[in-house]
Amino acid sequence: MSTPNLPEAVQQWKDRQVARLGALATTLTTTDRILTGRRDVGVKFKSQGADFTGRKVKNVPAYTDGKNISINDHMLPDLRTKQGLVTTLGLNYHELAHNMFTPGAGTQLVRSLKREGGGDWDMTFNLLEDARIESLLVSKYKSAAKFLSAPVLEFIIKDEKTWPTAHLFTHGRRFLRKDVRRELRNFFEGDDSIRDECEQIIDEYRVLDLSFEKNHGRALELIKRLHEIMNGPLSQCLTQEEKDAMNQHGACGGIGSPFGDFQNKLMDIKKESQEASRRMQDDDAAEEEDEEEEDASEDAAPEGEMDDEDDIEDEEGPEEQPEGDSGDVGDDQEDDGDDIEDEDDYEDGDGGEDDEEDIDSGDDQDGVSGDESEDGDDSTQGGTEGGSAGVGTGDVGDDDDASGDASDDVDGQPGGVGAGVGAGSIEDLAEALAGAIEDLEEDSDVESEVSRLREAMDDDTLLDTVMPEIPYRDAPVEAAAAQSASVVTRELQKLNTQFEAGWDYGSDYGRLNTQLAMTADWGDMNIFDHWEEGREMDAALEAFFAVDRSSSMSGYYGNKDLMGPACKALWVIKRALDDVDALSTVCTFDDGSPHKLYGRGEKANPSSIRMVTPSGGTNPLPVINEGRRILNTSERPNKLFGIITDGDWNGNTSGIVDQLNAIRGTRVFIGIGTSCNPRFREAFDVVATINEPRDIIEVIRQCVVSMLNEAAKRR
Where is this region: Disordered (predicted)? Predict the structure, then answer.
């Protein structure tokens, strides 16, 4: 039975994705704990239940509370793609950098920000802090830079309206290719003096060691000054999306469009630029024609007459283009290109090692968010959202001086004189961005890391139950139980027989069956035979069985012992499932958490039966949920859920029918000394009562029939 109003295949895919995300989160958590040396950090996705309901984190791709990193997979590219995984890694590393280096809520800097800025300075603080923590992280772990570039590039490419001030995001992120940073610098709409001051602020803040509170005063001064610039001369340049992004910790606020659309976006940009260029050429040609016609008419005009407009043009010409002005600017731009031409190409988008010398990444930086907090809380300032995932890298600065003059690594001119306000070339920027994307696509380290994550996400062992093992004792296998197991095996093998290779007689296509053709009714086209290839995977089976171990199974209340027959029946089923190479899990349940009796890849001992001791009450909901998790996530087409119980359930039984109906596959209720409670009968495909192991044979026979019927529906 399918989940109401949701196709079974869609629900199965969603369950599988949640399991894959769980495996990815586990892998990222392991990585983060190794990098930080801390056991209290972890990663969780929104689809796994990470909370994104708060006002400050509702529309952000990722945030951290100083320990736990939450990633909003609903806002990310498809995590089945290489681009999606690279972006996710970038987000994780960015938030990890906040955990490691951002001052905590109780530090002098954060207290001063709240007291003097009242929350208005948060955007500026985020912009400066992102470049600093990213630089620190990559100075320790250089390989992170390759992954951290993806979200930043995506933010830049997503909307060209952000380009006039994107330089504020990219200047401190020296892991980016220099040609990308240079072109965005050329696009900067503020004048040269404003741009240079912003660069100096970013550069100085980037190398501040905020593990020492003596530096917090200077950090506050820099934040205040950049805030004044951004809300003064640059207030009209910043788009709302850029403001949102800075409020959400950098470029991460702009993520959302698929990384795979980058090339299409760049092609559109180039096309628009080329069309604009052609239009300008057409306009110039039309102007020349008009001028030629005017000249011709002037030549034909009576001598002595003069056009007033021509007179005005001759008078104003020198003022419009003073000597050495417009022409010199163009020359300066060309010279700049010559100065930095050799800097455009560097390995993996990285540069030299100067940044490593400028940025101290020593151990005294680690754990700042916890050590600097007055109350000892590891939380950063109210939690950090977003994560522009760009990490300033120690080996991406080339010849950059981290304290320094941005003009050295971008324009190549002393004093920071640039190409002029908003003088960037769309085609040049598009070309630089395309090159950065190509670097990521072709990088062998990136490919290796993506393969590692994919392997973890596709690992079939992620379906293993995490329930603790139940203590048991071994009992010898009786002859009747062994014989019953052999018969049950033959019943289960009918699934394989159904999908074996062979001739399908009486089909409506294939080779003509003469005998059928001669005896068939007029119009009956089922007179052909065709060879059906084997479809062994269609017979693959996954099973989950739960056995009641509550006190009522012990016979303490005047009944005979039911626990022994239940364990023997389970052994018969488990042994037969092993013989047909099915994956099967067996758990016990009482009024507490379920316990594992047989693991998913574990075989039953052919000579001994695991016997458990009854205890406690009976609440089947937790074990039903565990069975649903495993079966609904399994990619095996045939699924079997079974529960063996005396039916005496207490505790919270509300919602049991809904939970059982949510389990895909055949569901069987096996009563021991009782019958199924009528309230739950509707949730099972097979309902039976057994008293001894051989009774299981008929139960499994009915289950196989049910599974074959389900298989026929899939064909």
Answer: 272-423
Please answer whether residues 374 and 88 qualify as being in contact, where contact means their C-beta atoms are separated by less than 8 angstroms. Answer: no
Among 59-63, 73-77, 529-533, 537-541, the minimum mean pLDDT is found in 529-533
- Comparing CA positions, the residue from 336, 394, 330, 402 lying closest to residue 179 is 336
Q: Enumerate residues 6+ apart whose C-beta is below 8 A from 29.
A: 41, 42, 43
Helix H or strand E segment including 536? none
Of 592 and 341, the one with more pLDDT: 592
Q: Residue 529 in 3-state DSSP? A: strand
Which stretch of DSSP H or E encloses residue 65?
none
Element (H, E) at 287: helix 262-300
Strand partners, 608: 476
Q: Which of 626, 624, 627, 668 is nearest to 649 (CA)?
A: 624
Name the nearest CA neighbour of 548 among 637, 476, 642, 471: 642
Q: How many CA atoms lie within 13 A of 629 on its CB side?
A: 18
| Burial group, residue 700, by CB count within 10 angstroms (0-12, 13-18, 19+) | buried
CA-nearest of 587, 649, 575, 582 to 619 is 649
CB 383 within 8 A of CB 63: yes
Q: How far apart are CA 418 and CA 339, in angstroms?
A: 13
Between the alpha carbon of residue 234 and those of residues 170, 228, 230, 384, 614, the distances in Å are: 16, 9, 5, 25, 73
Contact 440, 446 (CB under 8 A): yes
Is this prediction's pTM over 0.70? no
Bridging pattern class, strands 528-532 and 541-548: unpaired
| Lookup: tokens for 567 | 């364990």
- The β-bridge partners of 587 are 546, 596
Spatial contact of 638 and 535, defined as CB atoms under 8 Å apart: no
Residues 6 or more apart from 414 whose CB is under 8 A from it? 405, 407
Nearest alpha-carbon partner for 213 in 105, 98, 360, 372: 372
Q: Which of 214, 210, 208 is nearest to 364 (CA)?
A: 210
- Among 465, 459, 468, smallest CA distance to 630 is for 465
Report pLDDT digits (tens) over 452-472. Answer: 888 888 776 666 776 889 999
- How is residue 301 written in tokens? 């005009």
Task: Note the pLDDT tens digit of each residue in 190-233.
Answer: 788 889 999 999 999 999 999 888 999 999 999 999 988 888 87
The C-alpha atoms of residue 177 and residue 439 are separated, in whole angstroms, by 10
Name the 3-class secondary structure at 504: strand
